[in-house]
């Protein structure tokens, strides 16, 4: 099943007024470039901003991006067409994930629905066959609407006390309604994949799902300056067996998809737009299976600014900034292969995460070992920038 590369499909609906930053691989320079996505093409602005993190750190990133003239690399449609690895011409440019030096962080259990699903995973010990019965039991004890419960409040403490008395307390409920948010490192710096490429699943996982999320772009001083979309690919069986397997459940080759572009805040796009966003998800399987879902930021238990404040503070610093997955309320329980087993990916699934103001991030699911290997690291980036400046003396 081919990956959709149509620019009109991938761009935000109000593209004409959006300040969009991307990254592209330029074979003629043997390295990546920071690019501005404009109506008349893709422009390399690396001479002004050598890294995406530097542009994000500007006092006014949207204004700085618009002011940078840059070198035209080509039409966006041409770069998109050349991005899928199966048909790529390695002599022509293609798109990358739109971040580079930023640390990739993620918040978990920020929505009531996904919080309950995490409790179910934990009790099922990674076995999807047990999930349906456990879901009914947990819902009976906990209730289905915890979305109005403020984490860390007296009311949340009361719910915790009740659950403890019913032997139903869980580490996931602790971070879902307790005072401290779950924030973890999703993937290494520079390892994220962008749109129109393969995203990875661990080959030993038999119960997994996409997680459609908004990803905030945050500077070293804690300013939230923009956003993009992400798929926080999740292995429900691994994490369900033990929360200590979080790194294996979350961090595998190509398992962090971010894109298509970073949209910087300006007069037409602000943090309030994020707070009102609804993120849609579509999964199209090679056997004809179709799944639709949605995640509304209006239902998030913690305000995005609060999660950012719990990520960067006097105890945690990020000199090159960071990006932050905000979590999702999407928890797929629709049966796919057999009754009671819920949803899991199959090889070749096409996953699209979308919202009008950020566009559409689309990826094909494959085993991590079958995706393009991650080979371009920090040392390679520094060497590429030195060559570009004529400073390479090796």
UniProtKB/TrEMBL annotation:
Gene Ontology MF terms: hydrolase activity; metal ion binding
The keyword Hydrolase is assigned to this record: yes
Keyword Metal-binding among UniProt keywords: yes
Record keywords: Hydrolase, Metal-binding
Biological process, per Gene Ontology: small molecule metabolic process
Limits of the Fumarylacetoacetase-like C-terminal domain: 224-365
Family: Belongs to the FAH family.
Name of the protein this chain belongs to: Fumarylacetoacetate hydrolase family protein
Source species: Bradyrhizobium australiense
